[in-house]
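Protein data:
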Amino acid sequence: MGIAHAGAALAVEAADTTFRIDDGDQLLTEVRRTTNKDIARFKGRKPEPPRAPRGSITPGASMG
């Protein structure tokens, strides 16, 4: 969930379509489930911009 929660024990509450992560009485996040499997690990990350396809040329890069 981030450096502020590193090493902390957080509560995970699973429902049919979402799961919630709580730190005591504070709700940290609610995430949509993508599978019906048990939750083994959740890595919280900030959204990243899409990467350029492999083999594409970066503007300003030299060709030689």
